[in-house]
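Researcher: Please generate the 3D structure of the following complex. Treat every line as part of one assembly.
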Amino acid sequence: MRCQTGSVQPCEAILIVDDHDGFRRLARGMLEAAGFTVAEAATGAEATQAVRTVRPGLVLLDIGLPDFDGFEVARRLAAVPAGDPAPVVVLTSTREARDYGARIAASPAAGFLPKDELSGAALRRFLAREP
Amino acid sequence: MNRWLRAALIAGATAAVGCFVWSSWPPQGYVPVEISFAVVGLSFMVAGIAAWQRWPASRLGLLFTIVGYLYLVPVILGNLANPVAWTIGYPAGGIYGAALAQLGLAWPGGRMRSRFERGVIVADYAVNIAFNTAATMFWNPAFSGCNASCPANVLLIRSSRPTWNAINTVEALIGFVITGIVLTLIVRHWRSARGWSRRAMMPLLWIAPAVGAEQILTGNLFHFSATVTYALLPLVLLAGPALFVISTVRARTAGGALGTAIVDLEPGASPGRLKDALARALGDSTLQLAFRQPGGSGYLDTGGQAVDADRPDNGRAVVPIAGSDGAVLVYDEGLELEPQLVKLTAAAASMALEHARLQAEVQAQLEQVRASRARIVEAGDAERRRLERDLHDGAQQRLVMLSLALGMARDRAAGADPELEALITSAGKEAREALTELRELARGIHPAVLTETGLAGAIQALVERSPVAVTITAVPDERFPAAIEATAYFVVSEALANVAKHAMADGAQVTIRGLPGRLVIEVSDDGAGGARAEGGSGLRGLADRVASVGGVLRVDSPPGRGTRLEADLPCP
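Model: Done. Output below.
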């Protein structure tokens, strides 16, 4: 286990990548309440930048982004590791996993979490999973 | 042809033959020879009437008639035993040969082609008349052994067979030269003729020897026995009327062949094929079909050659094609003799071009309808994609946030107010169910998985949701044009829905194969069969959908032996 509840470690920082302001605000509130440090990015380009500066433990990555989609961002993050340990990337969407077929499994992301199932506990489960 | 002229010609021919029979009765010579005189003379006269009728503007009718009279009248005059009649008839006996040469040189147009040729014919007549008249002055009718019944020779100045013979020999020599020139000219006409004229000259080539043979048989150089002369000459001369008969039959045949040519022309034949068919039927290999070029005033024929339709070349004539946009036929001038045939050809060309134009129009309209149908379907697809995206970005997003907010509210209320907690939990459940229903609705409008992953993923998702066990035999991984992917998806989706609803099947199979230029979708089941493409609105709609991208839907569904549905889509 890399991250533990309550400990102040870089892996407790979460980067929310989503172009929807309302969602980012809501998610930030929820995750901060759950004890995470939260940073935000609204586009794929901002996300790749923010990963280097924030060095989050987990990136919550929306699939539908205005510049390039979440799959592409995940691919770029995996291609150029932004730190050690590399952040856990979790794809998310208002759609369900089956709407993306095999693309999720083919992506270097750790997994997929439907937006309506977002919770601190769900993210901790991803963090707890060893890569 | 003027009916008075026709009546006069008929009366003249009847009178001539009547006079001949009357003048030679009772027959003194060999009867078949006497009959041959009548037959040859009459056949030229009849050919003259018919030719006048057929080609009123041409001199050919007149020429045939003249040959007929020049042949028969001197014989009648000779039979009359009247000194004046005999003296006119005897030297005139050979003039028909000059008229025959004139007919040959004027064929087939009816006109002399040059001043030189006119001169040759004038010389032929002149030599004939001058020498025969001169010879007559030395011919004693008693030389032919008629003794007491001999008619008197009014022109006789000295009875001298050697002088008569000498004059005739000189005439024959000159006549040979003239005939040689005439035959050479005829061959030259034939060689320079093209197309219709050349074909029209063909029988003349066969007949030209008649002109020569006539000269040999009757000239005073070779002395054939009377039997040979009188047996061969009529046969040789009958070649003249045969000319007329052959050309008439040819024109008739060409007229009929035109109809056949148009009927046999395959639909949508190119103008080049039309031109070839018309040229073949008409017997004019030089026929050109030319079209006015847009903008300029020039014409191009079907071979791409420039044609001056306003001032055609020498020996060519032009007829416009009615109803066409400035198309013309350019043909051999010889055909001017057959205006009816030219009219028929232009009418046939007009019909064929009109047919081709209508066909092209229908084809273009069909293409437009096809394209617009494809556009309508594509616009529908795009609209559904947009609607799905709007739902995703809008209502779905809001419901997700509502659901998350309710979850957070519940966490805050937890423990403090159990009633409030229960209420929020129930609200959260409602929100989640609304979200699920909305997702299903959006998926029905347009499957995001198709846009996101292409056919393979979308078909996989369809199969997973099907209540019947479905095997995917093959699905290509690559992406296809959106309209093709959407059509393929709807085919499989509709087919699987039918399998679940009607087929009472245990299993089904989906195969999608990408072939060169095509995508073939096949869905088969082991159910009850009996589905009909024309029947249910589902299959009908699917067939329309498949047709919208230019594909074909086949349904094979024998009762009791399952259903096999195959969509064949063109795919670049």
